[in-house]
TrEMBL record:
Residue ranges of coiled coil: none
Entry's Gene Ontology molecular function annotations: IMP cyclohydrolase activity; phosphoribosylaminoimidazolecarboxamide formyltransferase activity
Pathway membership: Purine metabolism; IMP biosynthesis via de novo pathway; IMP from 5-formamido-1-(5-phospho-D-ribosyl)imidazole-4-carboxamide: step 1/1; Purine metabolism; IMP biosynthesis via de novo pathway; 5-formamido-1-(5-phospho-D-ribosyl)imidazole-4-carboxamide from 5-amino-1-(5-phospho-D-ribosyl)imidazole-4-carboxamide (10-formyl THF route): step 1/1
Source organism: Spirosoma foliorum
Gene Ontology process terms (BP): 'de novo' IMP biosynthetic process
Catalytically driven reaction(s): (6R)-10-formyltetrahydrofolate + 5-amino-1-(5-phospho-beta-D-ribosyl)imidazole-4-carboxamide = 5-formamido-1-(5-phospho-D-ribosyl)imidazole-4-carboxamide + (6S)-5,6,7,8-tetrahydrofolate; IMP + H2O = 5-formamido-1-(5-phospho-D-ribosyl)imidazole-4-carboxamide
Family that this chain belongs to: Belongs to the PurH family.
Key words, A-Z: Hydrolase, Multifunctional enzyme, Purine biosynthesis, Transferase
The enzyme's E.C. designation: 2.1.2.3, 3.5.4.10
Protein name: Bifunctional purine biosynthesis protein PurH
GO cellular component: cytosol
Domain of life: Bacteria
Domain-level remarks: The IMP cyclohydrolase activity resides in the N-terminal region.
């Protein structure tokens, strides 16, 4: 059943992206009703709009807590156009129909995340907005509900293609999205009162992930798998250039972000190159160019087609080196104008500018007939937490290298061994079924790219059940080791280190990543 939109109620907190939709509605001769700041926004565009107060006969009262909760508004959304009694009552009480509602909700989660006072948080619990959304969605037979700014572009396309009309299937689809929005919102509020919400997008609200913007991908890990990303990519990144992100791209981007966040921008410039979620290169240095070149030197073969991330703005000097590499994606907090112009010379290269966004502190994985939830591994041990268990203690340089290696190890698939020197990954053994195999893989890889392991360090994501790993490491020239400890045979490994002049520290914390 196709219905032409003749009237619309617009009441939104966020105005960004709204203008094209408002202009289209005006061009299609849709009568607009609005409130407060939204009304002022529409008037500034030179577009006629009727204040809701003129429709209801009541002003906004109680500090704005009540303005749309009135039969003239709720009735206009809820009355059934195909029920004669409803139509008669609407005419009798002079309630005009509202065919379209564009409503978003107060930023409750963002207010919680900002550390605002309880009073400010409570005032961001939307009452009128959520009632409007639910009313319009309930009456999707007659009304189109637009419940998120992420939908504006799609609605413009829809109303342009159908000349201001909508089909029942369109309205039902948007009603479903609206109820997902209200469910997510109420879950966030419930989580706050239960004391579980730590920041936007964590514990409770993430369960209702389908309330987040849906980004339909070309396919999943493989072409025969369908895939969708639920999340606000536009909030996370500004895409400055290149093709659309794929499922595998997004998985690697997530790995990049998690790893680079171990290295604060004010400490040193850091560059990481990721391939299949593991770092094939990472380094820190005083300059971005030096950090990138050192990261690339770790494994220039695997770097081909990888995802690159840095914690510092990309300048032209660094961009000139980056431009020599075929990469899928480059992520940075910013780019100079000259650097961006050069990097855009490759048509399909994806360039992302990362924004400051609070990330979830929990993670989920579907298994069997259910879902696993766990806290993210947000713990990283620093040198002050190391426990020296050998007669020889690491030097200051070795300690810095051990801390660096441990950060990389934490973000590498188990079983893993990471070999490093201060500020640079040399090689890693990734995802092996035995820790000895992981170590041998790392040693062979380091030698294949010309690295001298004498004086390097080794990090392990879990304890050594036997002394074989430290024996192999010592023979390769490694001089210091960091591992969690906790094996009943720890002393065997410690004894070997003492007998051969190696330093070993333990952390008491395992970093498996499956």
């Amino acid at each position: 059943m196709s219905l032409k939109i003749s009237s619309a109620l617009i009441s939104v907190f966020y105005k960004d992206g709204l203008e094209p939709l408002v202009r289209l509605l005006n061009e299609q001769n849709v009568k607009l009703y609005s409130t407060g700041g939204t009304q002022a926004f529409i008037e500034q565009l030179g577009i006629p709009v009727t204040a809701v107060e003129d429709l209801t006969g009541y002003p906004s009262i109680f500090g704005g807590r009540v303005k749309t909760l009135h039969p003239a508004v709720m009735g206009g959304l809820l009355y059934r156009r195909d029920v004669a009694e409803d139509v008669a009552q609407a005419e009798r009480h002079q309630i005009p129909p509202i065919d379209l509602a564009i409503v978003d909700l107060y930023p409750f989660e963002e207010t919680v995340a900002s550390g605002a006072s309880d009073e400010d948080i409570i005032e961001k619990i939307d009452i009128g907005g959520i009632s409007l959304i639910r009313a319009a969605a309930k009456n999707y037979n007659d009304v189109l509900i637009v419940s998120s700014r992420s939908q504006y572009g799609d609605v413009v396309d829809l109303l342009t293609q159908k000349n201001g009309a909508t089909d029942l299937s369109d309205r039902r689809e948007y009603a479903g999205k609206a109820f997902a929005t209200t469910s997510h919102y109420d879950t966030a509020i419930q989580s706050y009162f239960a004391g579980t919400t730590q920041r936007a997008g964590t514990t409770g609200p993430i369960y209702d992930f389908k309330a987040l913007p849906a980004n339909h991908l070309r396919y999943g890990e493989n072409p025969h798998q369908q895939a969708t990303f639920y999340g606000d990519l536009e909030a996370m990144f500004d895409k400055l250039h290149g093709k659309e992100l794929s499922y595998n791209n997004l998985v690697d981007v997530d790995a990049c972000v998690s790893l680079i966040d171990e290295f604060a921008a004010d400490e040193a410039k850091a560059f990481a190159i990721i391939k299949h979620t593991n770092a094939c290169g990472i380094a820190i240095a005083p300059t971005s160019k030096e950090a990138y070149l050192n990261a690339l030197a770790c494994d220039p073969v695997s770097a081909f087609g990888g995802v690159v991330i840095t914690n510092a703005p990309v300048d032209l000097e660094t961009a000139e080196e980056l431009n020599k590499l075929f990469m899928e994606i480059l992520i940075a907090p910013d780019y100079t104008t000259e650097a961006l112009s050069l990097l855009k010379s490759k048509k399909n290269r994806i360039l992302l500018k990362r924004n400051s966004v609070n990330l979830p502190t929990v993670m989920f994985k579907t298994i069997l007939n259910g879902v696993l939830e766990q806290d993210k591994d947000n713990q990283t041990e620093v040198t002050s937490q190391f426990k020296v268990v050998t007669e020889k203690a690491p030097t200051d340089s070795e300690n810095r290298a051990l801390e660096f290696a441990l950060k990389v190890c934490k973000h590498t698939k188990s079983n893993t061994i990471v070999l490093a020197k201060e500020g640079q990954l040399l090689a890693s053994g990734v995802g092996q079924t035995s820790r000895v195999d992981a170590l041998r893989q790392a040693i062979e890889k380091a030698h294949s790219f010309g690295f001298d392991l004498n004086g390097s360090v080794m990090a392990s994501d879990a304890f050594f059940p036997f002394p074989d790993c430290v024996e192999i490491a010592g023979q390769a020239g490694i001089t210091a080791v960091v591992q969690p400890g906790g094996s009943i045979r720890d002393q065997d490994s410690i004894d070997y280190c003492n007998q051969h002049g190696l330093a070993m520290v333990t952390t008491g914390v395992r970093h498996f990543k499956h």
